[in-house]
Write a structure and sequence with these properties.
Helices cover about 5% and strands about 35% of the residues. It is mainly beta. The protein folds into 2 domains: about 100 residues, Tumour Suppressor Smad4; about 120 residues, no CATH class. The strands form 4 sheets. The protein has a 6-stranded antiparallel β-sheet with strand order 1-11-10-9-6-7, with no helix packed on it. The chain has a 5-stranded antiparallel β-sheet with strand order 3-2-4-5-8, with no helix packed on it. Strands 12, 13, 14, 15 and 18 form a 5-stranded antiparallel β-sheet that branches. A hairpin with a 2-residue loop joins strand 6 and strand 7. It starts with about 30 loop residues before the first helix and ends in a 41-residue tail after the last strand. The N terminus is likely disordered.
């Protein structure tokens, strides 16, 4: 899955999570550390310049299926109203289990996959829009409509220069093996917005690091093995959590290995997007993925207050 959803899924993992654009484990040898540094530079550039940079996350709105919602911009602030009034940008409602929308401002154009949308049925997946300087991301999550507003002039992104990392360290690039479970149990993870996200416990990852044998569980939100759904989600905490690294934990994303052994590279560990703005809904690593050693590799916490 791409690290920037995507997040928003995904973002997203916006978000839901989408796979990390990471160095290829097949390219081993003397150049792996340069590939790590190149990947980090690419991420920094994207976070600094993307219209939906995690640092530009301003507002998050969640709409229930309970009548009409009016998305309003008034006095330099966005809000959701239940009745028509000044500053309406969009009317959004759910009818017969389908989301619909209607635009009220010519300065806002809704698009999905580079296709301009006209009033009517909301597309499957996600849509985006630009209004004045703001970027809007709209998507359906658990039958609810989510709207995230990004502001490229938010102080956090104006001041952003780069993320913080441990230096590349080959001792945290380890050989691992994977045992896929015969039955995929559902695991519920608490999120940063005090919600529950469900995943399938897909496989056990066995590895040795610093002379100690360790285990991490790998999860999937979908059991398909095609496209982005072939990626494994490995959230974890370790003895650096809450001090040098982000207090909610860190993530690894790994394309499902096709061989008995593979490289598990903790130099690619990254922070949930909720480290950068509170508009995200990030899963907390479950207790079974808490390591009792220090993983001094990958991304460190970003020192900011939401």
């Amino acid at each position: 899955m791409k690290r920037l959803i995507t997040l928003i899924f995904t973002l997203i993992v916006f978000l839901n999570f989408a796979g990390c654009d990471c160095p290829d484990d097949k390219n081993q040898g003397e150049t792996w550390d340069k590939k790590i540094l190149s990947h980090r530079a690419k991420t920094d550039s994207s976070y600094a310049n993307s219209p939906n940079s995690p640092f530009s996350g301003l507002n998050r709105f969640t709409l229930e299926k309970d009548g009409d919602h009016f998305f309003i911009y008034k006095g330099s602030e966005f809000s959701i109203g239940r009745k028509p009034g000044p500053g309406i940008l969009l009317k959004i409602w759910n009818e017969k289990e389908q989301w619909h929308w209607e635009a009220f401002n010519d300065g806002l154009t809704l698009k999905s996959k580079d296709r301009i949308l006209t009033n009517g049925l909301f597309p499957l997946g996600r849509a985006e829009a630009i209004f004045e300087r703001y970027y809007l991301a709209l998507y359906i999550l658990d039958e609810k409509m989510v709207i995230i507003v990004f502001d490229p002039e938010r102080e956090a992104i104006v001041n952003f220069k780069q993320l913080f990392y441990y230096p590349p360290d080959p001792s945290y690039r380890v050989t691992a093996s994977m045992e896929i479970f015969s039955n995929f149990e559902t695991v519920e993870m608490i999120t940063s917005r005090n919600l529950i996200k469900s995943y399938y416990r897909y496989a056990k990852i066995n590895f040795e690091i610093k002379g100690e044998k360790k285990v991490l569980m790998a999860y999937k939100s979908d059991l398909s093995k095609t496209g982005d759904k072939s990626w494994l989600f490995i959230p974890f905490k370790d003895n650096t959590t809450g001090s040098e690294t982000y207090g909610a934990g860190r993530f690894l994303e790994l394309k499902e290995p096709q061989s008995d052994t593979f490289v598990l590279d903790f130099n690619l560990a990254f922070n949930p997007l909720c480290n950068y703005a509170d508009v995200y809904n990030c899963s907390y690593p479950p207790p079974e993925n808490h390591l009792d050693i220090a993983i001094e590799a990958g991304e460190k916490t970003y020192p900011m207050a939401h």
